[in-house]
User: Fold this.
Amino acid sequence: MSSDVPLSVLDLVPISSGSTAAEALRNTLDLARRAEEFGYHRYWLAEHHLNPGVAGTSPALIISLVIGATTRIRVGSGAVQLGHHTPLSVVEQFGLLDAVHPGRIDLGLGRSGGAPRTPAAPVEGAAGVAEGAGESEEPGKEEAPGKEDGPGRTEGTFTDSGLYLPPKYTGFARLLASPRFRLHQALLRQPGATTPEYPDQIDDILALLAGNYRSANGVEAHVVPGEGAAVEVWILGSSGGTSARTAAARGLPFAANYHVSPGTVVEAVEAYRKAFRPSPALAGPRVLVSADVVVAPDDATARRLASGYGVWVRSIRTAEGAIPFPTPEEAARHRWSDEDRALVADRVDTQFVGSPETVVERLEALRAATGADELLITTITHGHEDRVRSYELLADAWAKRS
Assistant:
């Protein structure tokens, strides 16, 4: 694979309908081995909880399985949800991983699960919150499905490179107010626990890794293993807010989530670059951008393989929790209401689905619009081999592009 703009993998460990979590984990190990063969640069695991269709609940544990099944590819979190962890627990977990596999571990950190946000604010840092559905044959154009067939394009804008930026999604308040989210918070936190400010959490993690942590009254803490670990720390975010500013102020690389919040990806990377300050870890800004992708030998086949995505996204955005990923036949039985279409429209319009040539063209538009130094690809299909084949076709086409 060409190394000028590397491709990497984001894996939610999705469970297909009719399958099990155990099979999903076996599929993840197989995909990681194959991704390494195809030349992908990194393999990141997301953190999600209480989702019937997602088995990726503990990045550190799954990283230990994946890195043991591979030999070269970097493996990391995309992202650890700091609202559910203390800085010490994170450094201990990733320090253990680095002690066994030094120099191959990425520590991606996100805000999800933390302090309450304003109702319109994206849930930043959740690179694994993949939401979306099908894409059209031509860049910037969408086939108009029938009322019962699926969602259609909403109004938005296009960048000079042709990347579509949908209107900003404003439904996060619904998720945050749902009984399921409240249960999620209750089960993942000790009673009465509060989450510190995100920048403070990042500073504590960096200090524990560097070995210069001091409490407010001057007491030192040294983490073994963990102190001095050669982990690569990344900040993940969906807007130009706290996450982007935190990464920039500390001179850390930044992963912007086009697949989570496509309407804000450009503002996120611009805010990060504008505020960036060099650090010992990084002399200049470094940006990774995520994208939902399904590739097949031709556009029609790819659209069929991706057809379950809209129904899957709907389950997330209605606060049900991600359902097991449906077959195309199961997805075809869903009858789309106007409310359903509006709920998932931004993700429908921004998933890159098609032949290798079609998808490469769209990824080039994403790279040009964001100035991405690297692209993070997340692909979900019902069939495991279809998913593996998608990553293989994309890697081959990306390496051959002019």
User: Anything to note?
Assistant: Residues 119 and 173 are 4 Å apart (CA to CA). DSSP finds 14 helices and twelve strands in the chain.
